[in-house]
């Protein structure tokens, strides 16, 4: 269980409060108007920001003060998910060896398997610049697979892809998450993404991240804030 | 082993003397003379130097009063200076005089006197050195002071329009002169010797003025805190010996301090010598210095 | 938001260490001089005039450099022609040139007997003189125009191509385009360029005196020299140097506030596609500015080369030894400076780094001498001290180049590195250094060239057996060997530019965009 207990975060005029629990293995969409704090919520969970008050717990363990790499979270950012001057094998290898050391033979095989899994077999010696946008997203996902964390945070990593490609990627994420048994948190401003992908939705609006609601129920009886966002 | 602080021009010519085994010296040297005394003063009694080589009369008073130097115990009778010298602390090893050097191909008829120089047309261009940063520059100011006394500032004012520029040190001035930037450069009576001996060029000459030329001498002294006073005395005595004196003329392009004119190297014998030699004792110079420099600054700042 | 985010800059302990080292190496020597002097001294009669002249010439020099750089940088930004890259590189040379070499070159062109007067005489026109405050400014513009052009050129090239496309589609007049696109950029970049050049000109000494024509052109640095060398008045030297330091840091603060701190980094060979300035008049004007600037900057260099050639054979083994020493010093200074600059490549670090060029070299040398003397023989430390001081003096320039790019790398990849838990070494080795390769090459080249030509501090520590090349030039001149000195100066020029070229090139070859 991922528990956000009385989390408060403020920066100038911006503020965000979160008090909610998310179950392992779930798929959760985070939606809301832009600037409401969707990415901030992800940052708080992934450890890129520290809350002013409150606690963050994973399976009962307090991780409020843990640095990003000590958290059970793997993140896919909007951009810069790969180091452009390193080839894919090197990029993925860093997930296994953060000191940049040489990979053992079994680790190398693991990297190859991850590339196979996302459909990039044999491309380990390419640099990201030599790949298409979709291929880059796949490579980043392969990295997440190698990190093997119980929570995957997606901060709109597929926003630049076309609809068909995005659908493909979401299916791939679903598969990867299932393999890992991971909880997926996905920021999106497209309600269709949420309907298609997520079992639950966390609505972030008016300075509050609301407790998760089942996706179908949410869109059947949208609360006031969601109606405004959806323009209905 | 004796540690000698010296102007580096000396060190480069050190080899022959050292090789002859006349004296054992490990020469540690600073670059140019104006930096020697500050360095010794900064080091104080902890200095490693046994002998300092390359002081000028403008700093002897300060050096003497620091108490860092001891009498040299060297017999002064071999000296062949144009003035009397009886200092028991600072020992001369070579000398020269301030003089304007000109190129005969460019300036066929140089001014025949200092007065004539002051009255020369303003398109006669000279370069001098800053008395605040250069020894020869300070000597120039004292030269004008000794020739014109209270009229020094007025003399500088007359000279001002002819002064193309003032440089930080002697090298820059002389470089400008050899590049043909100026008609005359403030330098030494011995400068033509370099051109005669090293380049066989007899077109560079010193303009000799009947008013007299200021005496410039370079000095060595024994450091009081030396742990080898005998060796230091021996070394100082050696600087007045013939082998050293014969070497210093072309090593430092100056007149040897203890060598009769007949024994000077060939090129030096040709040099024109001033009739009248001007010199202030260190006390006189110290009393005059600040005001003389200030008069120079005022006159040239107008 | 950034302030509340988890710190993304790595190695803050190293940053503190590097910053403290700068502070210790600048304030330490001043304190040492002050302690030795037993207190502050009084200012002499000429000191106020010196201060006034110093400010005046620094303001005028910085102003003229920046003002002239505007049309030149603009012309270079919007014209493509063969050899443009080489011209931009070569025009940077005066900035890395040792002072004495440059002054000789300038006099060969603008002196009584120089090319300019020869041309005037041939045309039957009245002759000009370089000596006077205009000569001082001319020389400072010669040194610093390349820097100003580089800074502004970078600003021009940083204007996104879309903006030019937009103005082209709107059909804006040249004047409207200047106001909309170029003036805001200039307002952002020019104050920083002005301040850096102002600080450099503050400590001018030999140039100001030689070309200034006399005591009217006395600078604070000369007054410090006089206080140390002639009067041995260390208290006065300390006071003067602190005044100079305060002026420089004030300028630095103003620049940091006004300027957005754009670097003068790599990528200058790029030309944005532009649609303006296609008229005949604009083309003619741009061409004229480029030719004038190139002529002004390159002719003195050519004269240095021309006059040095015969001397190359007359230099003697001492000069080659000195050259070897200089190369060694330059290489080690460069390594030191880069290692120093990397942790300091932040906004605060850049201000701290400015202290290096702001402090009087003479006070720096004297202070270090006083600090070192009780423990070691300064002769033995001549080269190490020179290396450290060179690195210190080059630090502000290295930081100018590195900081914007270092910040970009941190902003782009800091989170990913955090998420992966990269170790400090892995971050440095695999991400930070490889991403900074181009600016690192440029910074290293500049540092190496500046170190090759520097003479600042070695004088008091000078060891006759380990002279550097600039010192050797002075020595040869001091012993009447003017031709050999010209040869050594040419060698110095070649080594400086060669070092710059090799490093800069090394940063570009095979570098990923």
From TrEMBL, chain A:
<keyword id="KW-1003">Cell membrane</keyword>
<dbReference type="InterPro" id="IPR003439">
    <property type="entry name" value="ABC_transporter-like_ATP-bd"/>
</dbReference>
<dbReference type="InterPro" id="IPR050093">
    <property type="entry name" value="ABC_SmlMolc_Importer"/>
</dbReference>
<dbReference type="InterPro" id="IPR003593">
    <property type="entry name" value="AAA+_ATPase"/>
</dbReference>
<keyword id="KW-0067">ATP-binding</keyword>
<keyword id="KW-0472">Membrane</keyword>
<dbReference type="GO" id="GO:0005524">
    <property type="term" value="F:ATP binding"/>
</dbReference>
<dbReference type="InterPro" id="IPR027417">
    <property type="entry name" value="P-loop_NTPase"/>
</dbReference>
<keyword id="KW-0547">Nucleotide-binding</keyword>
<keyword id="KW-1278">Translocase</keyword>
<keyword id="KW-0813">Transport</keyword>
<dbReference type="InterPro" id="IPR017871">
    <property type="entry name" value="ABC_transporter-like_CS"/>
</dbReference>
<protein>
    <submittedName>
        <fullName>ABC thiamine transporter, ATPase subunit</fullName>
    </submittedName>
</protein>
<dbReference type="Pfam" id="PF00005">
    <property type="entry name" value="ABC_tran"/>
</dbReference>
<feature type="domain" description="ABC transporter">
    <location>
        <begin position="2"/>
        <end position="231"/>
    </location>
</feature>
From TrEMBL, chain B:
<dbReference type="Pfam" id="PF01547">
    <property type="entry name" value="SBP_bac_1"/>
</dbReference>
<dbReference type="GO" id="GO:0015888">
    <property type="term" value="P:thiamine transport"/>
</dbReference>
<dbReference type="InterPro" id="IPR005948">
    <property type="entry name" value="ThiB-like"/>
</dbReference>
<dbReference type="InterPro" id="IPR006059">
    <property type="entry name" value="SBP"/>
</dbReference>
<dbReference type="GO" id="GO:0030976">
    <property type="term" value="F:thiamine pyrophosphate binding"/>
</dbReference>
<protein>
    <submittedName>
        <fullName>ABC thiamine transporter, periplasmic substrate-binding protein</fullName>
    </submittedName>
</protein>
<keyword id="KW-0813">Transport</keyword>
<comment type="similarity">
    <text>Belongs to the bacterial solute-binding protein 1 family.</text>
</comment>
<dbReference type="GO" id="GO:0030975">
    <property type="term" value="F:thiamine binding"/>
</dbReference>
<keyword id="KW-0732">Signal</keyword>
<keyword id="KW-0574">Periplasm</keyword>
<dbReference type="GO" id="GO:0030288">
    <property type="term" value="C:outer membrane-bounded periplasmic space"/>
</dbReference>
From TrEMBL, chain C:
<keyword id="KW-1133">Transmembrane helix</keyword>
<protein>
    <submittedName>
        <fullName>Thiamin ABC transporter membrane protein</fullName>
    </submittedName>
</protein>
<feature type="transmembrane region" description="Helical">
    <location>
        <begin position="288"/>
        <end position="310"/>
    </location>
</feature>
<keyword id="KW-0813">Transport</keyword>
<dbReference type="InterPro" id="IPR035906">
    <property type="entry name" value="MetI-like_sf"/>
</dbReference>
<feature type="transmembrane region" description="Helical">
    <location>
        <begin position="164"/>
        <end position="181"/>
    </location>
</feature>
<keyword id="KW-0472">Membrane</keyword>
<feature type="transmembrane region" description="Helical">
    <location>
        <begin position="85"/>
        <end position="110"/>
    </location>
</feature>
<feature type="domain" description="ABC transmembrane type-1">
    <location>
        <begin position="323"/>
        <end position="503"/>
    </location>
</feature>
<feature type="transmembrane region" description="Helical">
    <location>
        <begin position="53"/>
        <end position="73"/>
    </location>
</feature>
<dbReference type="GO" id="GO:0005886">
    <property type="term" value="C:plasma membrane"/>
</dbReference>
<keyword id="KW-0812">Transmembrane</keyword>
<feature type="transmembrane region" description="Helical">
    <location>
        <begin position="351"/>
        <end position="372"/>
    </location>
</feature>
<feature type="transmembrane region" description="Helical">
    <location>
        <begin position="322"/>
        <end position="345"/>
    </location>
</feature>
<feature type="transmembrane region" description="Helical">
    <location>
        <begin position="234"/>
        <end position="256"/>
    </location>
</feature>
């Amino acid at each position: 269980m991922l528990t956000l207990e009385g989390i408060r975060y403020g920066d100038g005029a911006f503020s965000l409060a979160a008090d909610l629990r998310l179950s392992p293995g779930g798929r959760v969409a985070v939606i809301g108007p832009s600037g409401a704090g969707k990415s901030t919520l992800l940052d708080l969970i992934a450890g890129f920001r520290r809350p002013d008050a409150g606690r963050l717990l994973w399976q009962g363990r307090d991780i409020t003060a843990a640095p990003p790499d000590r958290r059970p979270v793997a993140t896919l950012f909007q951009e810069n998910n790969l180091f452009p001057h390193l080839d894919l094998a090197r990029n993925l290898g860093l997930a296994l060896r953060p000191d940049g050391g040489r990979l053992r033979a079994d680790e190398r095989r693991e990297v190859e398997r991850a590339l196979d899994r996302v459909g990039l077999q044999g491309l380990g010696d390419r640099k990201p610049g030599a790949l298409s946008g979709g291929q880059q997203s796949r490579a980043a996902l392969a990295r997440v697979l190698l990190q093997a964390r119980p929570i995957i945070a997606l901060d709109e990593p597929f926003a630049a892809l076309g609809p068909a490609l995005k659908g493909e990627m979401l299916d791939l994420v679903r598969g990867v998450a299932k393999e890992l048994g991971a909880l997926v948190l996905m920021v999106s401003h497209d309600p269709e993404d949420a309907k298609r992908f997520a079992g639950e939705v966390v609505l972030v609006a008016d300075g509050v991240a609301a407790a998760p609601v089942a996706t179908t129920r949410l869109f059947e009886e949208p609360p006031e804030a969601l109606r405004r966002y959806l323009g209905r | 082993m004796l540690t000698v602080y010296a102007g580096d021009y000396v060190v480069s010519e050190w080899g022959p003397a050292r090789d002859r085994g006349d004296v054992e010296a490990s020469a540690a040297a600073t670059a140019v003379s104006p930096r020697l005394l500050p360095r010794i003063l900064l080091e104080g009694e902890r200095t490693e130097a046994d002998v300092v080589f390359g002081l000028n009369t403008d700093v002897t008073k300060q050096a003497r009063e620091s108490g860092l130097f001891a009498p040299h115990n060297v017999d002064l009778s071999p000296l062949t200076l144009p003035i009397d010298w009886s200092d028991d602390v600072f020992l001369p090893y070579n000398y020269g005089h301030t003089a304007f050097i000109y190129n005969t191909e460019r300036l066929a008829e140089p001014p025949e006197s200092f007065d004539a120089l002051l009255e020369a047309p303003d398109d006669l261009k000279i370069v001098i050195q800053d008395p605040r940063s250069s020894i020869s520059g300070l000597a120039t100011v004292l030269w004008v002071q000794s020739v014109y006394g209270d009229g020094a500032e007025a003399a500088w004012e007359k000279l001002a329009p002819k002064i193309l520029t003032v440089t930080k040190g002697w090298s820059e001035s002389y470089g400008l002169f050899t590049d043909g930037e100026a008609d005359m450069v403030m330098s030494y009576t011995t400068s033509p010797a370099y051109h005669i001996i090293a380049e066989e060029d007899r077109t560079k000459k010193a303009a000799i003025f009947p008013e007299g030329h200021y005496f410039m001498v370079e000095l060595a002294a024994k450091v009081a805190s030396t742990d080898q006073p005998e060796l230091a005395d021996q070394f100082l005595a050696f600087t007045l010996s013939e082998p050293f004196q014969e070497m210093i003329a072309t090593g430092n392009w100056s007149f040897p301090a203890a060598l009769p004119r007949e024994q000077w190297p060939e090129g030096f014998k040709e040099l024109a010598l001033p009739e009248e030699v001007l010199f202030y004792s260190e006390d006189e110079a110290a009393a005059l210095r600040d005001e003389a420099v200030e008069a120079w600054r005022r006159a040239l700042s107008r | 938001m950034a302030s509340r985010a988890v710190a993304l800059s790595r190695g803050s302990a190293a940053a503190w260490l590097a910053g403290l080292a700068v502070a210790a190496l600048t304030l330490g020597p001043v304190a040492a001089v002050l302690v030795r002097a037993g207190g502050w001294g009084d200012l002499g009669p000429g000191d106020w005039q010196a201060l006034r002249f110093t400010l005046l010439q620094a303001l005028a020099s910085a102003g003229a450099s920046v003002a002239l750089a505007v049309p030149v940088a603009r012309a270079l930004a919007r014209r493509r022609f063969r050899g443009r890259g080489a011209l931009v590189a070569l025009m940077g040379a005066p900035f890395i040139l040792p002072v004495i070499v440059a002054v000789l070159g300038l006099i060969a062109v603008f002196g009584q007997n120089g090319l300019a007067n020869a041309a005037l005489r041939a045309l039957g026109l009245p002759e000009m003189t370089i000596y006077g405050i205009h000569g001082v400014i001319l020389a400072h513009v010669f040194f610093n125009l390349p820097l100003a052009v580089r800074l502004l050129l970078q600003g021009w090239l940083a204007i996104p191509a879309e903006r030019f496309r937009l103005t082209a589609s709107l059909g804006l007049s040249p004047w409207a385009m200047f106001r909309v696109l170029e003036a805001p950029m200039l307002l952002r970049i020019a104050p920083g360029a002005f301040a850096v050049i102002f600080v450099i000109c503050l400590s001018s000494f030999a140039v100001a005196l030689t070309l200034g024509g006399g005591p009217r052109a006395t600078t604070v640095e000369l007054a410090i020299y006089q206080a140390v060398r002639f009067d041995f008045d260390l208290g006065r030297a300390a006071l003067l140097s602190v005044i100079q330091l305060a002026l420089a840091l004030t300028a630095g603060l103003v620049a940091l506030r006004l300027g957005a701190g754009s670097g003068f980094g790599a990528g200058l060979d790029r030309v944005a596609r532009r649609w303006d300035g296609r008229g005949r008049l604009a083309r003619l004007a741009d061409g004229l500015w480029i030719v004038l600037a190139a002529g002004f900057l390159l002719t003195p260099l050519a004269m240095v080369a021309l006059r040095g050639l015969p001397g190359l054979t007359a230099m003697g083994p001492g000069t080659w030894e000195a050259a070897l020493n200089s190369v060694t010093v330059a290489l080690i200074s460069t390594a030191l400076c880069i290692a120093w600059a990397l942790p300091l490549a932040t906004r605060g670090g850049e201000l701290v780094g400015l202290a290096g060029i702001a402090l009087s070299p003479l006070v720096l040398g004297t202070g270090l001498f006083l600090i070192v003397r009780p423990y070691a023989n300064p002769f033995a430390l001549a080269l190490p001290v020179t290396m450290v001081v060179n690195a210190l003096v080059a630090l502000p320039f290295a930081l100018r180049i590195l900081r914007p790019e270092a910040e970009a790398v941190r902003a782009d990849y800091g989170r990913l590195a955090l998420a992966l838990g990269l170790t400090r070494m892995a971050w440095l080795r695999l991400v930070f250094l490889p991403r900074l390769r181009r600016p690192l090459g440029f910074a290293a080249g500049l540092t190496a060239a500046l170190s090759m030509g520097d003479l600042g501090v070695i004088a008091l520590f000078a060891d006759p057996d380990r002279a550097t090349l600039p010192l050797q030039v002075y020595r040869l001149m001091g012993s009447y060997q003017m031709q050999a000195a010209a040869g050594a100066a040419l060698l110095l020029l070649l080594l400086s530019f060669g070092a710059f070229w090799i490093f800069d090139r090394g940063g570009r070859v095979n570098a990923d965009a």
